[in-house]
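User: Hey, my collaborator sent me this sequence without any context and asked if I could get a structure. I don't really work with proteins. Can you help?
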Amino acid sequence: MVIPACCIILGCVLAGMLLSMFYFRFCAISHPPIGVINLWDVAFLLAAVVVVPYVYLGLPLWLVTALLALGMSCLLYVLLEPILHRTLLAVGITVLIVAADLFAAWRYGTAGMPFFVVNNAVLIAVAVGFSNLWAQGGMPARALAILAGALAVYDFIFTERLSLMGDLFSGLAAAPFAPILAWPTGGGQWVGLGLGDLIIITLAPLVLRKAYGRSAGVAAIAIHFLAVALLLLLLVAGVRASFAVMVLLGPLVVLQYFYWNRRRGVERTTRQYLQAEPLRQKAS
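Assistant: No problem. I've predicted the 3D structure and written it out in structure-token form, which is a compact way to encode the shape of the chain:
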């Protein structure tokens, strides 16, 4: 059951990257509420990454679930509003999606197959929303490289050397809106990928495409797909039971940034990107 589970996780990762890029090329998020992304935003995100796990571990599970539901609801609304163009309709569908996750957890349990299906779909949508919010918000490739590099160090310390992330995932796996892209392998075990890892995997191709062109975005999708496939292959081979994904992915993002920056020179701004590659809906 491990091989099918790994194939499903890999398929979800590929779907997340392709859907993010599709959305990036066809939909414009109206007036991103966080403004233009800069290094201060990256610093704030990194601070949150350090602090939030401790906060979640110290809170009752029902409150953590409520906070996860709130955060995911906001990102789902951001994702849906440019597609539907109607605020109330976007809110209504967001509520239905959140209710579906809660119902699947209540009716089938968080170890039930229906919950994995629904929760994985929600996480992919959340990753698409977050990555487009930051990429369309003007996140520069340099900030992406700094974020990825810092997260690689963080993941090495708190996943490889300490038990923080393992404890966090173990605690949240039993909750609705568990931020883990997962699929069961039998015997109460599952193969999973953290939502944070999925977000970086989907965010990097968008930022690199905006900064350096279509080739950079396509190359990023291929590189990240192969990186996740390699980790899952090592898992199937029994090399290790768990991996700090960003320890591999972070340096790959940094290397891509330096490669494209050296090859293409100064990165494009969002305005220059849109002038060179107008959104499909605007070009029609």
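In plain terms: The chain is about 75% helix and 5% strand. You can pass these tokens on to your collaborator as they are.
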